[in-house]
Amino acid sequence: MQLIDIGVNLTHPSFAEQQHAVLERAIDAGVCQMLLTGTSLDGSEQALQLCQQLNPQAQRLFATAGVHPHDASSWTADSPRLLADLLKHPRARAVGECGLDFNRDFSPRPLQEKALEQQLALAVDLQLPVFLHERDASERLLAILREFRDQLPAAVLHCFTGEQRSLFAYLDLDLHIGITGWVCDERRGSHLHPLLREIPAQRLMLESDAPFLLPRNLRPRPKSGKNEPAFLPLVLQEVAMHRGESPAQLAASTSANARRFFALPTLLEPPTAD
Length: 274
Prior knowledge:
With 274 residues, this protein is of the alpha/beta class. It is built from eight helices and eight strands, in the order E-H-E-H-E-H-E-H-E-H-E-H-E-E-H-H. Helix 2 runs parallel beside helix 3 (79-87) and helix 7 (232-243) packs across helix 8 (247-261). The model has no long low-confidence stretch (mean pLDDT 95).
């Protein structure tokens, strides 16, 4: 059984000097391929460098490149050109993480929208899929996406935590949906459980969003409190249970979706002992 984690923040400072060990633990847990998330121009460049350093064979690690809405204040007239150069890297597989975050508003909303629109335009020009972030901004994000969707090859709403109305609206735009360990949190993620069955099998992907969103059903909990891609099987089990599928069935479909969406190479299953 192979899993693909479509969202790992391996450039996060908490993973400093631990990236190789994190990768090894993920592989041991059955997470065979990972997308490292770019959230700024510098961070995207670091993610691409990590892909090459940790996996020179170009089989397991790939990256997105983009500017997160938290960092939209850093978007300048030079940013589209600089980002386009990063996206031409052979390990770059999508534009993002980009989007809107009206929950924390770390960047002014007009700047968030400007950075998003220019990144969507870049995705259209380069014909790359988009890795999207949204918090408390579904209506505005949907309005902007509608202007670009027909020209975009694909888009995924990363770490979906919203309600039925926004889920159906994203699905109506033919978006993929990324699900994280949020579904394992009985305090704030239980509303997602009945919605999981509403996501078509061909639109669903799984992600850890490590080091964030440690699954609350993990026992024993790591002393560091950090999430890792190695814990993605817990998300798989939780989602499979609420969808009425076997973990193996869900792993196969979500991995096929991720491989197709991000144009990832196919890995052969290791031989099993007789």
